[in-house]
């Protein structure tokens, strides 16, 4: 499959007063048609900023300062709201952690889905209603005739997230971006929503970019995972490889902090320390302050993202000589 989305050496920086702080650096990756890719990392690592870049929705104080984004063969001009407006909803859709804040509280939920169809597919009102109802069934909602006229506050969190997914998919976008879509939901509903995302990917071929701090969530949906730390991609590999043989010490830490059957009854591991704040980032490996394998070299020289195996990239000095093991 060809690349649907390509980020090319992208840098995004915040300007605060007279100072500029790079928040994302050297971001290069592809999402192929129909692929499911996860982005994982603690909060403050740049996951959400990366997804907002792809939607052309960077906050006002941030700007793309290097590189660029190619979507479906077209170079996306960062300064062209028209160009982004033309793809948003239609080619790329996004769902968020909190559907309540994304839905209009004053409009029946079914109508909100139908309006999406009318705006982007130029279909008639009755046709839009028919498509919306059909989509509500596809995302696993029941008694949709009645639900169509309900307002957001009448729905549970899980139902609202299903409404958001229906809205995001009604125009058959090529890419769905989901930023922490299940973080606000309880465990059972979370599993159902992740199943639904996987199922929608299989049945519609929509590629998914799933953002989560939880590798366990990504594992349920994605084929490939990109690990981010302090604004950099530090590892990128098929999910199975990451779970079985993580290369980067940060990934190994994330994996260790996953709850598992073998760890029952023991307190969960957490990586000591925290992600450096934007203003505190300096030269050397950004993970050096927290890394159990750090050496003097790591303190002074930033590692490059290297190809450690055919489908495995890693940014760490331990793999500088052709990917030797830790
Ligand atoms: Fe740790 Fe050094 Fe690798 Fe950074 S480059 S992750 S500090 S071993
Ligand atoms: Mg976030």
TrEMBL record:
Keyword ATP-binding among record annotations: yes
Record localization: Cell membrane
UniProt keyword list: ATP-binding, Cell membrane, Membrane, Nucleotide-binding, Transport
Pfam families linked: ABC_tran, oligo_HPY
Main location class: membrane
GO cellular component, one term: plasma membrane
Domain ABC transporter intervals: 7-255
Membrane topology: Peripheral membrane protein
Signal peptide extent: none
Entry-linked InterPro entries: AAA+_ATPase, ABC_Ni/Peptide_Import, ABC_transporter-like_ATP-bd, ABC_transporter-like_CS, Oligopep_ABC_C, P-loop_NTPase
Highest taxon of the lineage: Bacteria
Gene Ontology terms: biological process: peptide transport
Keyword DNA repair on entry: no
Molecular function per GO: ATP binding; ATP hydrolysis activity
NCBIfam families assigned to the protein according to its UniProt record, in alphabetical order: oligo_HPY
Family named by the database record: Belongs to the ABC transporter superfamily.
Descriptive protein name: ABC transporter ATP-binding protein
Source species of the chain: Paenibacillus oceani
């Amino acid at each position: 499959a060809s690349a649907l989305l390509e980020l090319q050496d992208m840098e995004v920086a915040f300007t605060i007063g007279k100072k500029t702080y790079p928040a994302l650096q050297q971001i290069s990756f592809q999402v192929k048609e129909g692929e499911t890719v996860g982005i994982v990392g603690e909060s403050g690592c740049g996951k959400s900023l990366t997804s907002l870049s792809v939607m052309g929705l960077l906050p006002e104080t941030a700007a793309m300062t290097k590189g660029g984004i190619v979507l479906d063969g077209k170079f996306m001009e960062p300064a062209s709201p028209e160009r982004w407006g033309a793809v948003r909803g239609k080619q790329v859709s996004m769902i968020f952690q909190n559907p309540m804040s994304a839905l209009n509280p004053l409009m029946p939920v079914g109508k909100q889905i139908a309006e999406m169809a009318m705006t982007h597919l130029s279909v008639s009102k009755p046709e839009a209603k028919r498509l919306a109802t059909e989509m509500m069934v596809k995302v696993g909602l029941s008694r949709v005739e009645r639900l169509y006229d309900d307002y957001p506050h009448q729905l549970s969190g899980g139902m609202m997230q299903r409404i958001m997914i229906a809205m995001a998919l009604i125009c058959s976008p090529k890419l769905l971006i989901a930023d922490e879509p299940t973080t606000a939901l309880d465990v059972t509903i979370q599993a159902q929503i992740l199943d639904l995302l996987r199922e929608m990917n299989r049945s519609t071929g929509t590629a998914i970019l799933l953002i989560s701090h939880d590798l366990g969530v990504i594992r349920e949906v994605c084929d490939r995972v990109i690990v981010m730390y302090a604004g950099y991609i530090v590892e990128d590999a098929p999910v199975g490889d990451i779970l079985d043989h993580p290369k980067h010490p940060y990934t190994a830490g994330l994996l260790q902090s996953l709850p598992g059957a073998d760890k029952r009854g023991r307190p969960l591991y957490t990586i000591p320390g925290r992600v450096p704040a934007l203003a505190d980032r300096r030269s050397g490996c950004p993970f050096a302050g927290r890394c159990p394998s750090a050496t003097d070299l790591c303190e002074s020289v930033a590692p490059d993202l290297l190809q450690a195996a055919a489908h495995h990239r890693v940014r760490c000095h331990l793999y500088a000589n052709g990917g030797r093991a830790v």
